[in-house]
Design a protein that fits this description.
By secondary structure, the chain is mainly alpha-helical. The protein contains nine helices and no strands.
């Protein structure tokens, strides 16, 4: 059957995730490029750190939720490794948020808080999806996109006097192998693609929001 046949000669599920990340991920957003530049305003960096803390800084987080529901049993070991890594990432974000001081005063704060809560809920929904491959794709896209987000966090650490810590994610080769295996059928690859697209859409919306807030403060 087509849905269980290997897709010989076609891009793997991990290839799909990385291609989506290059086109639609954080690396392609102009506001993030500004934030990781020396010209970034400290208040804009602070705002970004607090927003990331609101979306990704509280437990259990996307990877833990996906592991808990784990509709793809073969994904559990990889999800556990990613979830364990995010324990350190959450601690790092919390330290950065404390060092950055309070969220900068910005018009529309109530609407911002509502948008951040909605984003977190959207990620929880992805993690709990019963569609095999959907949560896998979301976590894979998060791990891939986090490489760019880490540039922002480390830049903020330098700016706010926090000692950077190394990330503890599985190796790129391990993640690529796991995601390729988990998305090896046409059905699961489609689900991986969908999950990745939804995760990246949430991150794009986050950078759009932060860009608008920076404009409101600086305008």
């Amino acid at each position: 059957m087509l849905d269980t046949a290997q897709k010989g000669g076609q891009a793997s599920a991990w290839d799909v995730v990385t291609e989506l990340g290059e086109a639609d991920g954080s690396v392609a957003h102009p506001h993030l490029s500004l934030l990781i530049s020396p010209a970034a305003a400290s208040r804009d960096l602070s705002d970004a750190v607090h927003a990331l803390c609101a979306v990704h800084g509280d437990p259990p987080g996307l990877a833990v939720e996906a592991r808990t529901f784990c509709v793809q049993p073969d994904a559990c070991d990889w999800l556990t490794a990613v979830a364990d890594a995010f324990v350190g990432e959450r601690s790092y974000i919390a330290r950065l948020a404390a060092a950055a001081g309070p969220t900068p005063s910005t018009p529309g704060q109530a609407e911002t808080e509502a948008a951040l809560i909605a984003s977190r809920h959207a990620l929880e929904t992805l993690a709990r999806s019963e569609r095999r491959g959907c949560a896998t794709g979301a976590v894979a896209a998060l791990v891939n996109d986090w490489t760019t987000i880490r540039l922002l966090l480390d830049h903020a650490a330098e700016r706010f006097g926090v000692e950077p810590v190394p990330a503890g994610f599985p190796s790129l080769a391990e993640t690529a192998s796991s995601v390729t295996m988990l998305g090896a059928t046409l059905a699961t690859e489609r689900a991986v693609r969908f999950g990745a697209q939804q995760l990246l859409a949430q991150h794009r919306a986050l950078w759009d929001l932060l860009e608008a807030r920076a404009s409101a403060r600086n305008g």
